[in-house]
Amino acid sequence: MGSPPKQSAVQARLWISGWCISVKSVPAMLALPELGSAAVLSVSDLLREARAVLENRLPLAWVGGELSNFTRAPSGHCYFTLKDDRAQVDCIMYRSRAAAIDWEMKNGMRVEARALATLYEPRGRFQLQVESLRRAGPGPLYERFIRLKEQLAREGLFDPARKRPIARHPSAIGVVTSPSAAALQDVVSTLARRNPSIPVIVYPTAVQGEGAAERIAAALVTANRRAECQVLLLVRGGGSLEDLWQFNEERVARAIRDSRIPVIVGVGHETDFTIADFAADLRAPTPTAAAELCSASRADVLAQLRDLLRAASREMKRQFDYAAQAVDHLTRRLAHPADRLHHAERLLGQLRVRLASSASRPFDALGYRVAGATARLSTSMTHRLSLSGSRLEHARGTLGGLDPSAVLARGYSITRDAQGRVVSDPIQVRPGDRLHTILARGSIESEVKHRL
């Protein structure tokens, strides 16, 4: 800028602030008194003078540009940047003015702002105080975003049928981002909190600036070549449309779809959408949400495991109960051999009585027939008794095999835990648990030292 020429105190102060504004344009009522060369102004006095010059030299005017870095504060005030291809300026629109806007302000829109050029004294920052805002069509970056989105959609790149399922319990998780990004810390801390046993592999890349798109695509290729994880997280924090533009590049979208490993994209804030979001197998509103979507909570996993163990125990008990009922049913159907023998003896007695009565008849032929019948009957009964005895012994053996005490007598035992549940797998107990073992004679109380 060079050395300032000799001027009045006011002119010198404005030069030091970085502006070349002639005080000739300041109305006489705002003119400052001439100060001696030894006079020293405070910073606040200097900025107050500069603000007065700006607001009077540049009255309300319409300024056109592209909307960027839009933020609505909890107070209701709106902060954003108005820019063109050569410059940009910070803007503020107070809540009372913003409430009159009946359309949604989005980054990338072309707008026209009726604004007053002013200076924010506490920070010495030049800004526009916007009184009203009207739409003037989308900005060039936003138009480029829409064209590419429509082109890739026509190719089927965003087809839901091409989305790959995300493993609910991955053995390793890959993160594609900048090692210095806050998003990486959010992802790592979230995974450590939810399930610290899952390994995290970082594939470093630039996520902003010229050439970042090529590096992101290369990192995805590297992750697929190494095949170390079951899911990839492509993440970075929020920013303006320009900051996130590398995620709107076609090569990044195609690298996501070419990946054999499912990709979750968590870029920016919940309201930020990029081409990468549409190409991803799953879109997360934030990096933290991306980590939550691919990792089951350790507490949830343990709860599910406990539920499965309880269900398995109930099913085993149910099967034992069914087997016991089946034995009872078969036992009721099985007639005792002694009862059948008693019945045969009664029948034999009856036949003997009838035979004795027939023998008293004076017919030799009848006597001969009775003798023959008696012999056959005796043979038949002997055979039936022998057969019944064999069946009886077989039934006794069958009943003995079904008798739990007989099983115990052969050297087996039944072990139960402190809750009375039968222990059939070492996974059901832990070191220090008390166990009760039933033997053929008596029982044993024991304590688990270790599992094999």
- On the 0 to 100 scale, the average pLDDT is 81
Q: Quick one: biggest sheet?
A: 5 strands, mixed, barrel
* First and last CA, distance: 82 Å
**Widest sheet: strand ordering:** 1-2-3-5-4
CATH class of the largest domain: Alpha Beta
User: H/E order of the elements?
Assistant: HHEEEHEEHEHEHEHEHEHHHHHEEE
> Under the CATH scheme, which architecture of the largest domain would be assigned?
3-Layer(aba) Sandwich
Give start-end ranges of low-pLDDT stretches.
1-33
Number of domains: 5
Counting DSSP E segments of at least 2 residues, the number of strands comes to 13
Categorize the overall geometry: rod-shaped
CATH names the topology of the largest domain as Rossmann fold
Cα-based radius of gyration, to the nearest Å: 47 Å
* Helix segment tally: 13
Give the oligomeric state of the chains in this entry, treating copies of one chain as homo and distinct chains as hetero: single chain
Output the structural class: alpha/beta
- Strand content is 15-25%
State the helical fraction: 40-55%
CATH superfamily of the largest domain: Response regulator
Describe this protein's structure:
- With 452 residues, the protein is of the alpha/beta class.
- The chain has 5 domains: 9-55, no CATH class; 61-138, Nucleic acid-binding proteins (OB fold (Dihydrolipoamide Acetyltransferase, E2P), Beta Barrel); 163-296, Rossmann fold (3-Layer(aba) Sandwich), CATH 3.40.50; 334-402; 403-452, no CATH class.
- It has 13 helices and 13 strands.
- The protein has helices at residues 9-16, 43-57, 95-98, 140-154, 182-194, 212-226, 250-258, 275-279, 287-293, 298-333, 337-359, 364-402, 404-409, and strands spanning 61-72, 78-83, 88-93, 109-120, 125-138, 173-177, 200-204, 231-236, 263-267, 282-283, 414-416, 434-438, 443-447.
- Strands 1-2-3-5-4 form a 5-stranded mixed barrel. It has a 5-stranded parallel sheet with strand order 7-6-8-9-10.
- α5 packs parallel to α9, α6 (212-226) runs parallel beside α7 and α11 packs antiparallel against α12.
- Mean pLDDT is 81; it is low at 1-33.
